[in-house]
Amino acid sequence: MALTNQQISRYSRHLIMPEVGVKGQEKLASSSVLCIGAGGLGSPLALYLAAAGIGRLGIIDFDIVDFSNLQRQILHSEAKVGKLKVESAKERVHEINSDVEVETYNLMLNSENALDIIKEYEVVVDGTDNFATRYLVNDSCVLLGKPNVYGSIFRFEGQVSVFDAKRGPCYRCLYPEPPPPGLVPSCAEGGVLGILPGIIGTMQAAETIKLIIGKGNPLIGKLLFLDVMEMKIRELKLRKDPSCPICGENPTITGLIDYAEFCGLGRGEEQTGEDGDGLEITVDEFHDLVNNKKDIIILDVREPGEFEICHLDGSKLIPLGELPSKVNELDTADEIVVHCHHGVRSLRATKLLRSMGFRKVKSLKGGIDAWAINYDPSMPRY
């Protein structure tokens, strides 16, 4: 793809570098990249790949822009709150570079559509935040022979790698099995420093460009760890696992599987992976208890910082991690309603308390956020 005079002017700082040059920029202009996720990691990815002159950019996301996204998802703006993320992303990409062809997919990637979508792209960049989709992306890329530029973030730490089964290990070589459901907190539970996805996503963009122009040493067979609190970077060498079920010597996975089931997320329980039947109370039922001045203990298992943002009057704060050592502060004879932000940690706390002999304890389904939406619109939401 020959560059126009306008493109030569636009990408001149690339062209004067021998590692990129005209040929490298032409490769970028004729390349196609699929960005899975238009959130924290997808934001810098889309912005910088567009600025770099990627020819065709695919963006997958099924969510809408929420006000809480704006702390880190710089692809979107206040004016785009409530808008589909893929549409917001497309508009912003075209504001940066109208030459980029943008394909949007307002859907959840799954075993039925992944291969058909991914096969149309040269490089896949994983900006997702859950294990089921990471395994799905990995297996699709291995089966199709595509490189998978991986990134993950949590609180103050991030990871970056390039999984390419043709030249090195895949994601399953590093993580053969997913962690038990609910064991690893999500960013919604543990938080994330707003700048972190910008750093990690930009690293993913750099790896993507290196793969396309065929220069430098991509992070194949290496996993990079970043701790922004200490500002330290570590690198771990990875080896291809000969017994890997999908890229090993005798693969047992030859097609896409049920990844929700594989990750223990049966029955649609994406966050806890466990059945809450009989252990949860709805926000309406909880409202009736409070309104009737029922003698109950309201146990808040969030972190102190969350409690400071908002809390229910009369609630008792014991963070989930401290609950085993402070259970003596509770009475098994009391009726207890446990809540957290969205109901994930409180369900785990309820199961823990039940195992310790507490019989009159239930988790507030939807957490304090459901209470704010349904009964206290003045309460801050986060």
In short:
This protein is an alpha/beta fold.
Keywords:
Rossmann fold, 8-stranded mixed β-sheet, 5-stranded parallel β-sheet, 2 domains, 16 helices, 382 residues, alpha/beta, single chain, Oxidized Rhodanese, domain 1
Notes on the structure:
- With 382 residues, the protein is of the alpha/beta class.
- The chain folds into two domains: 238 residues, Rossmann fold (3-Layer(aba) Sandwich); 95 residues, Rhodanese-like domain (Oxidized Rhodanese, domain 1), CATH 3.40.250.
- It contains 16 helices and 13 strands.
- The strands form two sheets. The protein has an eight-stranded mixed β-sheet with strand order 3-2-1-4-5-6-7-8, sandwiched between helices.
- Helix 4 runs parallel beside helix 5 and helix 4 crosses helix 10.
- The chain is elongated.
- The N and C termini lie far apart (47 Å).
- About 2% of the residues have low confidence.
CATH class of the largest domain: Alpha Beta
What is the approximate shape? Answer: elongated
Main-sheet strand order equals 3-2-1-4-5-6-7-8
CATH architecture of the largest domain: 3-Layer(aba) Sandwich
Radius of gyration: 23 Å
Number of strands: 13
Compressed to H and E, one letter per element, the order equals HHHEHEHEHEHEEHHHEEHEHEHEHEHEH
Secondary structure layout plus pairing:
Layout: H1 5-10, H2 12-15, H3 21-29, E1 32-36, H4 42-52, E2 56-60, H5 85-96, E3 101-105, H6 114-118, E4 123-126, H7 131-144, E5 148-154, E6 157-163, H8 171-174, H9 187-190, H10 196-213, E7 222-227, E8 232-237, H11 259-262, E9 280-281, H12 283-291, E10 297-300, H13 304-309, E11 316-317, H14 323-326, E12 336-339, H15 344-355, E13 361-364, H16 367-374
Parallel strand pairs: 1-2, 1-4, 2-3, 4-5, 9-13, 10-11, 10-12, 12-13
Antiparallel strand pairs: 5-6, 6-7, 7-8
Helix pairs in contact: 4-5, 4-10
